[in-house]
Design a protein that fits this description.
Elements lengths: L2 H26 L3 H7 L5 E3 L5 E3 H9 L4 E15 L2 E14 L2 E14 L5
Antiparallel strand pairs: 1-2, 3-4, 4-5
Helix pairs in contact: 1-2, 2-3
């Protein structure tokens, strides 16, 4: 990989990790409008309980605050670039209110980001 390739890889990875952080903040704030800008029409989500949601169902889930997420952060993230696709793996920590009680949960995730039309 040449120096220019490394620079492009680094910039794309950094951009996607910034988007991961924006995603977390939008989810905590139940900001479905911001999340609409981040996820494609073909977006799908498998939740921590194994449930599967398409884009519209997931956005409604977030907007309604079904998961009363109070804090969400990622750690140990790694971004792997494959052409116009970036696969991010990592761990998350969330503080969430369940049945009136604040609970801290940890888990792992894999997110796939695809550059389309330069975005």
């Amino acid at each position: 990989m040449g120096a220019e390739d490394v620079k492009i890889h680094s910039e794309k990875s950094r951009t996607v990790l910034t988007l991961e952080s924006a995603w977390n903040q939008a989810e905590v704030n139940h900001d479905a409008k911001a999340l609409e800008l981040l996820v494609a029409d073909t977006f799908v989500c498998t939740d921590s309980d194994g449930s599967f949601m398409n884009r519209s169902r997931w956005l409604s889930h977030v907007k309604l605050g079904v998961d009363d997420c109070q804090q969400l952060s990622d750690e140990d993230q790694t971004a792997h670039l494959y052409g116009d696709t970036v696969v991010v793996t990592g761990a998350y920590r969330e503080r969430i209110r369940i049945m009136g009680k604040s609970v801290v949960r940890r888990g792992r995730f894999t997110d796939t980001w695809i550059y389309r039309n330069g975005h």
